[in-house]
Design goal:
2 helices; Conserved Hypothetical Protein Mth637, Chain: A; single chain; 27% helix; 5-stranded mixed beta sheet; 34% strand; alpha+beta
């Protein structure tokens, strides 16, 4: 099965959740959840699942559990498809 690894820059505790756009070689995301007890990480996975149209179980946090800079693995989606789906979701509130 094909998968994609994404670099993310996450802003927790934001007023509005959504995909902001590119941030260097990463994607910048905002989530409303606070960075407490994994709530922001869960919100990141849920936001990506909606944006990429995949089940949340297909997204795994590889590194950055306690950091704004994260790496996630998305199973079942090719890198080119991932980029296109994130770009089409960019700027929309989640």
């Amino acid at each position: 099965m094909e998968s994609t690894r994404l670099r993310l820059r996450v802003v927790p505790g934001a007023a509005r959740a959504g995909i902001v756009g590119r941030y260097g070689d990463a994607w910048k995301l905002r989530v409303a959840a606070a960075p407490e007890r994994g709530a922001a990480n869960t919100a990141v996975v849920e936001l990506l699942a909606r944006a990429l149209d995949v089940p949340a179980r297909d997204i795994s946090l590889v590194s950055g559990h306690a950091s704004r800079d994260k790496i996630v693995d998305v199973a079942g989606v090719r890198p080119a498809d991932t980029e296109a789906r994130l770009a089409s979701f960019e700027g929309k509130d989640a």
